[in-house]
């Protein structure tokens, strides 16, 4: 079965950071789970500051 | 463990509504589950009318 | 559109806590978003201690 | 209970494709699961090429 | 990019229903989106009656 | 904001594999995104072979 990551991140990451994240997460997951790299999928959901909250406070207000 | 909400909402809510949603959901969850408020995370995914459907009909066509 | 909550919770909550969580989340969401209660859905995913981690440590080891 | 689909798709699909996807998924699900069509919800998350990766490579670089 | 379905279903479906659901969803999605069938993944999350609620009422109490 | 992973994995991984997965994913994410490790959460959803399908075929039948 495909191993799948959903990363929920704040907006503002560079393409280079996303490129490295996909590469490293895939490599490490395949190593740890003895799986093939082409069975690993990564999905990044970028969330704006007005759409997340921690401990009752909106990101926008932090 | 962190209690986490993913709210799927139609686009068009005000920041003030989101602010209150995060505040109230966090407070009530901590009360009901005897947890600390700083263990509660809220994530809001806004979905446009062309990206959801109920009973076989696209939101755009309702 | 239906407003939908996915609550990720540690295992071990009582049915009574879940009943109250569904009731209160639905009522407060409908109030805050001026929506009807029958447009609100709640889904609870229970996660065992060996299946979540915070700050690099497995729940089981906390 | 509501049957719910979350479709993760690359950006770039037409409204007409989404309309047909919602209609057909709903009809077939209701048939296969002996459920009512109005108990089926479909949510489409569109993901840009810089936010997904297969086998360690970013969509943008494929 | 891989098209991915997350189906949230009440517990109690037969393996035969799941087999047909995976087959039909994959075939129809590939047709509608002009994609290859091997780019389609389906994930089924089964939810017990005490872990979902509609319109403020727990599934268990319906 | 908290960076959050949802890993969808086939059942059958050892606790030791999950422990290492949480540790390595957290460390690498914090490094790549210049974030603190305690802002990283990992959630593992284990899916049985009858609840996932690739290219139209149920995991059970592969």
Automatic annotation (TrEMBL), chains A, B, C, D, E, F:
Pfam family, one: Tautomerase
Annotated keywords: Isomerase
Domain named 4-oxalocrotonate tautomerase-like: residues: 9-57
GO molecular function term, any single one: isomerase activity
InterPro entries according to UniProt: 4-OT-like_dom, Tautomerase/MIF_sf
Alphabetized Gene3D superfamilies for the sequence: Macrophage Migration Inhibitory Factor
Transmembrane segments: none
SUPFAM superfamilies tied to this protein: Tautomerase/MIF
Protein name, UniProt field: Putative 4-oxalocrotonate tautomerase family enzyme
Source organism: Nitrososphaera viennensis EN76
Upper taxonomic lineage: Archaea, Nitrososphaerota, Nitrososphaeria, Nitrososphaerales, Nitrososphaeraceae
């Amino acid at each position: 079965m495909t191993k799948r990551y959903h990363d929920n991140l704040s907006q503002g990451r560079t393409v280079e950071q996303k490129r490295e994240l996909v590469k490293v997460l895939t490599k490490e997951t395949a190593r740890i789970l003895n799986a093939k790299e082409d069975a690993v999928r990564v999905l990044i959901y970028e969330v704006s500051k007005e759409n997340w909250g921690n401990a009752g406070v909106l990101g926008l207000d932090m």
